[in-house]
C-alpha cells in the first residue's frame, strides 16, 4: 500500500492509493455530515468548525505493515456546551475514472439497493483500471458502521453513505416498519473534547483476500458484493459469553498511538514513532486488592473477559475488577473500577495502584 500525494489529476479527489500492481485508486473527497440538536449540516474535514463541531482527517500507511493504510476522522467540540450527535456519517466513494468504472454516481452494481443493517459492515469498492481488485474499507476497533446506504454522488464511480451514528436516521419515515439488528446510538461530546474514528484501507483481489484481512482483526465477512457488506465479530462464532480478552487492538489519533493486548496496555508512543513508554513484556493495567482479612487477589496472569462496554473484567468471588483505556485528545485515559455483585458487603483493607 502506497499513498501518492499528487497523481497529476486536476479533478478534486481524496487520498490516492497505489495497489500492488501500481494502479492508482483515488478516493473521492470524503464528505462528513452530522445531525446535532435537530440541525443537519456538512463538516469540512480541514478543522473548520460548524455549529461548534470541527472535523479533521488524516490518511497514513500503517506502521510496520505495508499492506494497509489508516484513515482517521477526529471530531472536536469547540464550544462550551456538550453536543449530542444523533447522526454522524461519511460519504465514501471512489473518484470516477476514464475507464473500467461504473456510471458516475450509480448505486453499486450487483449490490443491494436497500440500506445495509448488520452487526457491522465493510466496503468493497471497484476502481478504474482493475477488473479483479477492490478497495476494502473496514471500520476498526470501536469504530462501527451503524447503517450503510448506497449513494448517488457526483464525481464518483461508486459511493456509500456510512453512518457512524444513526439514531435519528433510523427513525426516518421510510424505515418506519424496519426491524433493526443493532440499537440506534447517538453520542455526546463534552466541551473542548475530541473523539476519533478509524477506518482501515486495503486491497483485495479475491474473496479469500477480503476474508483474510478481516480475520486479522477478529472480523468475518457476511458478503462480498461491490458496495457495503455485513461483517461480524469472530467472537460471535468462536467464543462463548463472556467474551475473551485474548486479542490485540490499536488505538490511534493525531497525538497518541496505543496497543492493547490481552486487555493491558502493551505499547504507548506517538503516531509517527518516538520513544516507547511501555515494556511490552510487562504491560500496564493490572491491579490487585487486599481484603480486610489479609487475603489478596491480583489480575496479573489472569485471563478475564471483555465487559459490555469493551472493558477488561476480572472476578474474585463476588468482587469484580474492571479496567479500560480510552483516547481523550492527547491523553490516554485509564479507568479502574470495583463492584460487588453479591448480596453481602465486601470489606477491603487496601487497594494497590496498577502495576507498570
Primary descriptors:
356 residues; eight-stranded antiparallel β-sheet; globular; mainly beta; six-stranded antiparallel β-sheet; disordered C terminus
Q: Please estimate the helix content.
A: under 10%
Estimate the global geometry from the Cα principal axes: globular
**Residue ranges: pLDDT <50 for 5 or more in a row?**
98-112, 236-241, 351-356
- Estimated structural class: mainly beta
Q: What is the H-and-E element order?
A: EEEEEEEEEEEEEEEHEEHEEEEEEEEEEE
**What composes the largest sheet?**
8 strands, antiparallel
Please give the count of helices.
Answer: 2
Write out the strand line-up for the largest beta sheet, numbering strands in chain order: 6-7-8-15-11-10-17-16
Rounded Rg: 22 Å
- Beta-strand content estimate: over 45%
Distance between the termini: 36 Å
Q: On the 0-100 scale, what is the average pLDDT?
A: 81
**What is the total tally of β strands?**
28
Amino acid at each position: 500500500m502506497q499513498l501518492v500525494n499528487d497523481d497529476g489529476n486536476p479533478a478534486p479527489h481524496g487520498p490516492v492509493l497505489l495497489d500492488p500492481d501500481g494502479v492508482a485508486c483515488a478516493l473521492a473527497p470524503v464528505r462528513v455530515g452530522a445531525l446535532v440538536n435537530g440541525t443537519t449540516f456538512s463538516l469540512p474535514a480541514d478543522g473548520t468548525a460548524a455549529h461548534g463541531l470541527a472535523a479533521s482527517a488524516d490518511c497514513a500507511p500503517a506502521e510496520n505493515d505495508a499492506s494497509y493504510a489508516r484513515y482517521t476522522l477526529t471530531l472536536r467540540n469547540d464550544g462550551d456546551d456538550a453536543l449530542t450527535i444523533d447522526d454522524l456519517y461519511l460519504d465514501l466513494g471512489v473518484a470516477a475514472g476514464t475507464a473500467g468504472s461504473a456510471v458516475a454516481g450509480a448505486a453499486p452494481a450487483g449490490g443491494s439497493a436497500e440500506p445495509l443493517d448488520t452487526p457491522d459492515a465493510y466496503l468493497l469498492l471497484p476502481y478504474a483500471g482493475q477488473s479483479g481488485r477492490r478497495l476494502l474499507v473496514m471500520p476498526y476497533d470501536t469504530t462501527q458502521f451503524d447503517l450503510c446506504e448506497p449513494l448517488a454522488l457526483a464525481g464518483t464511480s461508486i459511493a456509500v453513505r456510512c453512518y457512524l451514528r444513526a439514531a435519528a436516521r433510523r427513525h426516518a419515515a421510510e424505515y418506519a416498519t424496519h426491524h433493526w439488528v443493532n440499537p440506534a446510538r447517538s453520542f455526546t461530546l463534552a466541551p473542548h473534547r475530541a473523539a476519533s474514528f478509524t477506518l482501515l484501507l486495503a486491497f483485495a483481489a479475491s474473496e479469500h483476500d477480503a476474508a483474510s484481512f478481516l480475520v486479522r482483526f477478529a472480523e468475518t465477512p457476511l458478503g462480498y458484493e461491490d458496495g457495503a457488506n455485513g461483517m461480524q465479530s469472530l467472537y460471535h462464532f468462536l467464543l462463548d459469553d463472556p467474551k475473551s480478552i485474548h486479542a490485540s487492538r490499536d488505538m490511534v489519533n493525531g497525538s497518541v498511538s496505543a496497543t492493547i493486548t490481552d486487555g493491558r496496555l502493551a505499547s504507548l508512543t506517538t503516531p509517527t514513532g518516538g520513544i516507547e513508554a511501555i515494556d511490552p513484556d510487562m504491560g500496564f493495567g493490572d491491579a490487585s486488592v487486599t481484603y480486610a482479612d489479609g487475603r489478596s487477589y491480583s489480575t496479573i496472569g489472569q485471563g478475564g473477559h471483555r465487559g459490555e462496554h469493551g472493558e477488561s473484567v476480572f472476578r474474585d468471588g463476588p468482587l469484580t475488577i474492571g479496567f479500560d483505556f480510552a483516547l481523550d485528545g492527547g491523553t490516554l485515559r485509564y479507568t479502574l473500577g470495583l463492584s460487588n455483585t453479591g448480596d453481602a458487603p465486601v470489606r477491603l483493607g487496601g487497594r494497590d495502584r496498577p502495576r507498570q
